[in-house]
Design goal:
The chain has 170 residues and is of the alpha+beta class. It has one domain (34-164). It has helices at residues 2-7, 59-68, 72-76, 114-125; strands spanning 34-42, 45-53, 91-95, 98-102, 140-143, 153-157, 163-165. The strands form 2 sheets. It has a 5-stranded mixed sheet with strand order 3-4-5-6-7. A two-stranded antiparallel ribbon has the order 1-2. β3 (91-95) and β4 form a beta hairpin. The longest helix is centred in the last third of the chain and has 12 residues, at 114-125. The chain is elongated.
Length: 170
């Protein structure tokens, strides 16, 4: 009875099936590839893309790449940027495991929709931030109109690429 049950499972014999080229992506020891994570907008929300780099990039370097926009291949996948043009004017500095981002005076933060803020903050949080442990725990302090003395508003990048405000103690 047991033999009849096992034989009746309806799995027929198969031959090898060609499924493409062998797996790749694992680097040999000593040739570790580095990547920077940039965030772009898509029809389904904010999406991360990884681009190879020759070294870890600072938040400023990552934001400079973000401001260049998606590559043609990324654009073909439906990715765009909601960040307005401000090349050379969006600046970032790091201190105490946090990132201070200074938005140029010509761009009001009211002009930045939540997707643009998510793109900027998450790109900065996933760059090489000295003293940080997790991108989701890095405070991103956004200063409007490039004013360093003003009280910034603070956000963090969530695990899904969207920002949430950091509520400070009352």
């Amino acid at each position: 009875m047991l033999i009849a049950t096992a034989a009746g499972c309806a799995i027929g014999p198969t031959s090898p099936v060609h499924a493409g080229s062998p797996a790749s992506g694992i680097q040999p020891p000593g040739t570790e590839a580095r990547f920077v994570r940039l965030y772009f907008a898509s029809p389904t929300g904010t999406r991360a893309v990884s681009r190879p780099t020759d070294r870890p990039l600072s938040p400023q370097q990552a934001l400079d790449l973000l401001l260049e926009g998606p590559t043609p291949a990324e654009h073909q996948r439906g990715l765009i940027s909601q960040v307005p043009p401000m090349s050379g004017q969006l600046t970032a500095t790091t201190a105490d495991g946090a990132v201070d981002i200074f938005v140029p005076q010509k761009v009001s933060t009211g002009d930045l929709d939540v997707t643009a803020v998510s793109q900027i903050a998450c790109t900065a949080a996933h760059a090489n931030v000295p003293g940080s442990t997790s991108p989701t725990q890095i405070d991103i302090r956004i200063h409007e109109n490039n004013i360093r003395s003003q009280t910034p508003w603070t956000v963090r990048c969530g695990p899904n690429g969207n920002v949430t405000p950091v509520i400070t103690g009352s």
